[in-house]
What we know:
With 378 residues, this protein is an alpha+beta fold. Helix content is 44%, strand content 17%. The protein has four domains: 1-53; 60-238, C8orf32 fold, CATH 3.10.620; 242-333, 2-Layer Sandwich (Translation Initiation Factor IF3); 339-377, no CATH class. The chain is built from twelve helices and 16 strands. It has a four-stranded antiparallel β-sheet. The relative contact order is 0.08.
Amino acid sequence: MKKTVVILSLVLAASVxxxxxxxxxxxxxxxxxxxxxxxxxxxxAKAEEKKGNYKEDGxxxxxxxxxxxxxxxxxxxxxxxxxxxSDTDKETxxxxxxxxxxxxxxxxxxxxxxxxxxxxxxxxxxxxxxxVVTLPSASGSDFTPQGVLVSKQAVCVGYATTFRxxxxxxxxxxxIVHNDYHSWDLVKLDDxxxxxxxxxxxxxxxxxxxxxxxxxxxxxxGHDWDxxxxxxxxxxxxxxxxxxxxxxxxxxxxxxxxxxxxxKKASDRHSLYFSFKKNYxxxxxxxxxxxxxxxxxxxxxxxxxxxxxxxxxxNGENNTYVLGLFISDYSAQQNGTKLTAKExxxxxxxxxxAFGVEVTSDGDMDPVNGDYKxxxxx
Length: 378
């Protein structure tokens, strides 16, 4: 009987010890879980605070160029009533409405509308403060849609604000993304996803569509912003590279296609996009660098030193990648102003007739240092 009592006492003691250990473990785990939940709630609160404190309209980029609301203009466009607008806003609405009449077709999707606006702005708006001849409103208001549409010149805020105005007129949600020195747009399309659009950088780099409809992952390579304050851009369906790529065997198959594109004379801006039959991994992406470097060297040796190529990888659908190559022809640019091939030829012919000299068709401007070259006597 005594042995039984002793054994029971030992069992009970062991059970109590185990319970104590288990209780201690449970308490510790509970504290960890509570701490984790508390930290997560703090992070969420900070994220919400950032969203609440994010300033779009009224923010000054570079402490100089203010982002101004154009909601009154877009509301007047959608309602058909401009009676409450100022004379300046009425003028802006008229100019913007006339542009949309020309570029938007009945039945266009959100993406087609967005692309039409991007194309018009890329082709018609130059960089602010870059003209030889002073333009009306080019000084001091190239950051507002009114100044941009009158002068056809814009700084980054001018591009971003004007694009947002067009998007809102067309019923698309759009934000202006900014940091201390730059601004661009974030637009929501009919797939329910958001996309980054930076027209200013494309114009300044002569790289059409490179910064059009980017995901966050693509935009992060050249942009810096407070991602907690704005919607995530993670859609790829309407990335331009996904919509407009040619499938080829591998990276080396790109080379003859670039050469063929360089032989075209109809356009001065060339954007090429390639998907690949082989499913490239992230480790394979670096292999595009020597291909692009080799193409630039080949162009230089072939007398095409006024052209250059740069590239960018884009996330495609189903975990694939699309390569974008951008051929820039700087001989076709004169202080940021774009002329068509026909207009450049007409300019060269007029100068030759008047002065008896033959100049390059862009006005004899050296694209590197901005100096005029010596014309050739005929």
